[in-house]
Write a structure and sequence with these properties.
six-stranded antiparallel β-sheet; alpha+beta; 18% helix; two-stranded antiparallel sheet
Length: 122
């Protein structure tokens, strides 16, 4: 169970992992935050791991276990998803469009920002 104060760090670390995994594996990798969960996922079942018509499958954390976390009870978050391509560039997970401005996820009183073009997670 994650405490509220640690959850923004968990999301930032997960997004950094998604970017690194996309570049290392050659497979688009997505980080998504809903009102109830955060997960790092890749596409499976399509013609390739970059075929977004396939299903999303949660990846394994470094050290084991599913890369999925429950949002702590009572923590307000803005929802959003971003996926990274093999060059580490960030795309809007809903539209598939390369980010042209920063994507800001508000998690309680903290913010996690994904920069356009580079995908830097702050």
């Amino acid at each position: 169970m994650l405490f509220r104060s640690n959850f923004a760090g968990e999301v930032a670390a997960g997004l950094r992992h998604a970017q690194s995994l996309a570049m290392a594996s050659g497979c688009d990798t997505q980080g998504s935050l809903t009102s109830s969960t955060f997960a790092v996922q890749r596409w499976t079942g399509g013609s390739s791991c970059n075929d977004h018509s396939g299903a999303l499958s949660t990846v394994t954390r470094p050290g084991g276990g599913s890369y999925s976390s429950t949002v702590p009870t009572g923590l307000a978050v803005t929802t959003g998803s971003v996926y990274f391509d093999t060059l580490g560039r960030p795309y809007n997970g809903s539209t598939g469009v390369l980010l042209s401005s920063a994507l800001v996820l508000t998690i309680g009183t903290r913010q996690v920002t994904i920069q356009p073009e580079t995908g830097l997670v702050q």
